[in-house]
Design a protein that fits this description.
The chain is mostly beta strands and 174 residues long. It has one domain: Lipoprotein localisation LolA/LolB/LppX (outer membrane lipoprotein receptor (LolB), chain A, Clam), CATH 2.50.20. 13% of the residues lie in helices and 48% in strands.
Length: 174
């Protein structure tokens, strides 16, 4: 779960410092290549982001899940388990610091170094975010790829998370 939060938090904050819009909707594919067994986990879905700190990730595969981020809080809503868990994101990557150190390699590639981790950030010719990749603290290679990027204005209602009344609520902040 920490890998997902780290990737989500990183991609959410990227919009603030790189030459991309402050809001975006897109489809995404996330891969996590496990460093120990060389197996790849694949996730896909849709994302809506508004800088500085709001995002809604709707995972379609391999299981349905919605993750809503606002500030340092995240709700993870899992329909198959009929539960919603609230997390505090105090272990997120200090993204603004990372982005302040991002160096433009060429017109589509940026690299940022922070706490010994290198982040590869790619944008397309129109300056839309294409992908973010890094190796996490467990040695796993995490890559987020974005497609069908739409940078038109996002209504705040699109970022709201609805938790069904009959779901179990778990406080995972402690």
């Amino acid at each position: 779960m920490n890998r997902i939060f780290a990737a989500i938090a990183l991609s959410t904050a990227l919009f603030a410092a790189l030459p991309v819009p402050e809001q975006m909707r897109a489809d995404f594919n996330q891969t996590v290549l496990n460093s120990e067994n060389n197996r790849t986990l694949r996730y896909s879905g849709h994302v809506a982001v508004k800088v500085p700190d709001r995002a809604k990730w709707i995972y379609e595969t391999p299981v349905k899940k919605t993750i809503c981020l606002q500030g340092n809080r995240a709700w993870v809503i899992e329909p198959e388990l009929e539960q919603a868990t609230l997390y505090r994101l105090d272990r997120t990557i200090p993204l603004l610091a990372i982005l302040e150190h991002a160096k433009n390699i060429d017109k589509t590639h940026y690299i940022a170094h922070y706490n010994g981790v290198a982040y590869d950030i790619y944008v397309d010719g129109g300056k839309h975010l294409n992908s973010v990749g890094y190796t996490d603290e467990l040695g796993n290679r995490v890559t987020l790829k974005f497609s069908r990027v739409d940078t038109s204005k996002i209504d705040d209602s699109l970022l709201e998370c609805d938790i069904p009344e009959d779901y179990d609520i778990i406080d995972g902040r402690f």
